[in-house]
Design a protein that fits this description.
The complex is a heterodimer of chains A (about 270) and B (about 300). By secondary structure, chain A is mainly beta. Chain A has a domain of about 180 residues. Chain B folds into 2 domains: about 150 residues, Alpha-Beta Plaits; about 140 residues, Alpha-Beta Plaits. In chain B, about 45% of the residues are buried. Chain B is elongated and about 65 Å long. In chain B, about 25% of the residues lie in helices and about 35% in strands. The N and C termini of chain B lie close together (about 10 Å). Classes of the chains: A mainly beta (about 270), B alpha+beta (about 300). The interface between A and B is medium-sized, with 22 and 19 residues.
Chain lengths: ~270, ~300
């Protein structure tokens, strides 16, 4: 069976909420039935076939072709299967997803992985602000799962996250890991100002020394962190996308903080590669 | 039936259901992983008085362990999940966590689990950190050597304990040589352990005793010094009986281990003082798993 593919007929002018296009919603439905599913487009409601041409039958594997940043809420609350996005995608990618996998062969808008509680998001391009963060009013950001960004990420990555892992292989913006309750954020290139600002617990792992670190972080010295050895070994064993972690070693400069909160978080600045 | 002149008795080993788990101990070097593993398997020869039976299953290469360091796989057997729950965390806490540079992980996936880090984390006195990586929860406990990493729990599975065979020899020296070789061969197999010291039992027991407070006592029918005193199973030429007890994850594992072990012992032959191979059973009253010697050697 080939993946159920939705190809945009023309680039949308307004934001298009494609939240209904998730595997569990489409399972068991015929193409004719799927074509009649209603989507919110700008301030009106349209049927799927007004915007997309469709092919394929395997609804557990969905492909969005010729996607643009106007498509929002892709993979919202999905619990299984996979969504592959060719092109860019808009805000709230994988919002509240519980399981399954989303792969974006392009860039994403803000709030990717917002409130996700499981599953995995792979972004081959860049992501805007608030990756894995909690929306205004939420107590927590992501509570589990894994987000892997090959490019750069914007500000406030993982804001208020509770659990899970965010990997940014490129650069991260300011306030990375702000107010996190727990969880792990890894940035393999430069990070912006004040990482970990207001963090309660959790771990921020930086491959490069940050330009500005808050005075409310205290140095614990250079250490061989057994946890890093475990983490990198486990990540490298997940799949080829994360195999690069096999080259990272356990040596790190540990800073504990944010002492303005309860100081049980940590920033680990990697010292050198294996 | 004879192998290399050694008579195989027409009898069976009687085994009973147990619960088992497997843990993986890693350390900076294999030497220190062994020290922790040897500590945890100390005083774990029999559930009769130790609570659990435990032994090293095998060495693990760095590529086989969760943290990429050299490791040891240890299997632990008990009569119930409750017993495992009680003993595993205690032993890991006192034997593994106290050994320098070690970490302890689950070596068995199962829905039913017993806690390791879930109990030991409190040693961190509030500074412990929980991490979920790849769906597995680990505890980072700050200790004086750095960090003790311990998985939240380890899986529990149904298992079988008490697979056995007896090596009846002219002297203890003859019997021990054959048993050492048998144990060496059994230890190459996955999923089985021989929990007694060196894998060999010098004082095999029977169920019950004339004393009401004892649940097990000496198996007088196989004691050479009592040959003329009791209804003995031993003939004149037999001067020593040693037992190899095998715990395993399933019947197939124990079958294979007994087969390999008996053949190794028999390789010494009658010429080197090995007279008979027998097995411990209690008329089918002890457990539901029966391992017929002649059947498994066919």
């Amino acid at each position: 069976m080939s993946a159920l593919t939705f190809t945009l007929k023309t680039p949308p002018k307004f934001t298009l909420n494609v939240a209904p296009l998730i595997p569990e919603n489409l399972e068991g439905k015929t193409l004719a039935k799927i074509k009649t599913i209603k989507l919110i487009y700008g301030n009106e409601t349209v049927k799927v076939d007004a915007l997309f041409s469709m092919k394929g039958t395997d609804s557990s594997h969905i492909c969005l072709d010729k996607s643009t940043d106007k498509l929002i809420n892709v993979g919202q609350k999905m619990t299984r299967g996979s969504i592959f996005i060719k092109g860019d995608v808009g805000d709230f990618l994988g919002q509240g997803m519980k399981n399954g996998k989303i792969i974006v062969d392009g860039n994403t808008g803000a709030w990717a992985g917002n409130a996700m509680s499981g599953g995995r998001i792979d972004i081959h391009g860049n992501a805007l602000d608030y990756v894995g963060a909690g929306a205004p009013g939420d107590t927590f950001g992501m509570t589990n799962g894994l987000i892997n960004i090959k490019g750069n990420a914007g500000d406030r990555v993982g804001d208020r996250m509770r659990r899970g892992i965010i990997i940014i292989q490129g650069k991260s913006g300011n306030y990375c890991g702000s107010r996190i309750h727990a969880g792990t954020i890894i940035v393999l290139d430069k990070v912006g100002k004040l990482p970990g600002e207001g963090m309660r617990r959790g771990t921020i792992i930086l491959a490069k020394k940050p330009a500005h670190l808050s005075a409310t972080f205290k140095s614990c010295g250079n250490l061989k962190m057994q946890f890093l050895r475990l983490l990198f070994t486990q990540l490298a064993n997940i799949d080829d996308e994360l195999a690069l972690f096999s080259k990272y070693g356990p040596e790190a400069h540990r800073f504990s903080g944010d002492l303005a909160r309860n100081g049980k978080g940590e920033i680990l600045i990697l010292q050198h590669y294996k | 039936m004879k192998i290399n002149g050694v008579q195989i008795d027409d009898t069976f080993a009687e085994a009973f259901p147990m619960k088992a788990t497997r843990i993986i101990i890693t350390a900076m070097t294999l030497k220190w992983a062994y020290r922790a593993a040897n500590a945890i398997r100390g005083f774990a020869s029999s559930v009769i008085a130790c609570g659990i039976e435990a032994d090293i299953e095998r060495e693990l290469k760095p590529s086989e362990t969760p943290d990429g360091r050299p490791g040891i796989s240890v299997m632990i057997f008990a009569m119930s999940t409750k017993d495992l729950e009680k003993h595993v965390a205690t032993r890991v806490g006192q034997s593994v966590m106290t050994t320098a540079t070690t970490a302890c992980y689950s070596g068995l996936e199962s829905e039913q689990t017993v806690s390791i880090g879930k109990s030991l984390r409190f040693f961190g006195d509030g500074y412990q950190i929980s991490k979920v990586v790849n769906g597995r929860r680990f505890w980072r406990i700050p200790v004086m050597h750095g960090e003790f990493i311990c998985e939240e729990s380890t899986g529990v599975t149904k298992a079988i304990g008490g697979g056995n065979f007896l090596v009846l020899a002219k002297t203890a020296r003859h019997g021990l040589a054959a048993c050492e070789k048998a144990v060496d061969e059994i230890q190459k197999l996955p999923g089985v352990i021989t929990a007694f010291p060196g894998g060999v039992v010098g004082s095999g027991s029977k169920v019950g005793s004339k004393y009401k407070f004892l649940t097990a006592s000496t198996n007088e029918a196989y004691c050479p010094t009592l040959k003329g005193q009791v209804k003995s199973e031993l003939t004149d030429e037999i001067g020593s009986v040693l037992e190899i007890v095998i715990d395993g994850l399933d019947e197939d594992s124990i079958n294979q281990a007994m087969r390999v072990g008996i053949k190794a012992a028999c390789s010494f032959g009658l010429a080197k003082g090995i007279c008979r191979i027998s097995a411990g059973n209690y008329g089918g009253n002890l457990g539901p798993h029966l391992f017929h010697l002649r059947k498994l050697l066919k």
